[in-house]
Amino acid sequence: MARGAPSRADQQVVRELAGHGLVVTASQLESWRRAGLLPRHRRRGLGRGRGSVVDAVDPVVVESAAVLARHLRQGRDRRLAVLEWFAEAGMAAQPGAVQVPEPPLAAVREAVVWVLGGTVSHRLLEVARGATGAGEEAADVLYEVAGRLVAARPYRGSADPALVRAALEADEDVPEGPDSRGLVHLVAAIGLGAQEVGADALAEAFAAYGLFGLTAEDWAQMLGAVERGESPPVDWGLLQHRADVLGAVQQASDEQLLRARTVLFGLRMFYGLYAMHALFMPDTPALAALRAKIDEWGMFPILDHVIALSPSPRHFAEGLAVGLEPLFDGLYETLMEQLTADSALFQLPGDEAGAAGFMETWIRILREQTARAPKRADASGEEPL
Fold it and tell me: What is the pTM of this model?
């Protein structure tokens, strides 16, 4: 074979991919190898001094090249393709389909760190750290910058699905979710310390998440008791430690990254089941039990903040960082235990049709609600959508 000419194995890979409608060149394959994304073909030694030979094209090479060809486009950063590859590899293959191999986990870690380093959250953390021990002027700058960044990307969480459903059934206005503006105080607490920020400001921050359904007044009462020494002290150092998601990803092992993906995918499913309650999904004892577990942990508002049901690669990277947190890992385990104890999520009591009957009931309810929409609009004097 002439120097620089593609190997027979790579030529075969190109042909196999072409058969699936994927256009890839041998030079692209070699470029992906140099970037550490594509393995080389396994070779067999011919004996001392006789070199080695490729007996057959490695299926892992073919499938890895295929997934890169699907996700890489001209001008697109390879790290985004790696994240999509990692997400795809974590999904169960369809019957008869080949399971997507795992990407190099070092490349996954690099991609997650790259995404996190460019997030608003990381910029806020850097500003907060810069204000530590730097005096009142730095504190003023922290509040100004944090307020500007939060305002630039305003976030309002989803209202409690049970309250939304009740409002829709009663033809009442749907309640609004928690407002993110109070989170500025949480950023300030990371940089200046909780004691400097004060109980009232922190209460506003925690209420912005909607945790446990508590109001700012409820939080102010509890945090004020801590501040006055009437309640056990709080280890606020955990706040700074947990805020450093970038460091956690950099230190994560391959096994921890794989586990984080499992946790993220699992929590995404449980969050979706919880949120669908607002959309008139029929209730079953198993679904109610899962929602009750999430409520016990007070975690729906936080899941609503961090989980994306149709995530972009950047959202997926941020979600992996969440999956590394012991809190979310523990919640995932608790919900999996509950699911094991009662897996009949889509079995309506007394309905032998199972999942089919569940879906028929849901479709019927949605049609009824849709039919009621014009009547609601007429009664209120509003134009129907």
Answer: 0.83
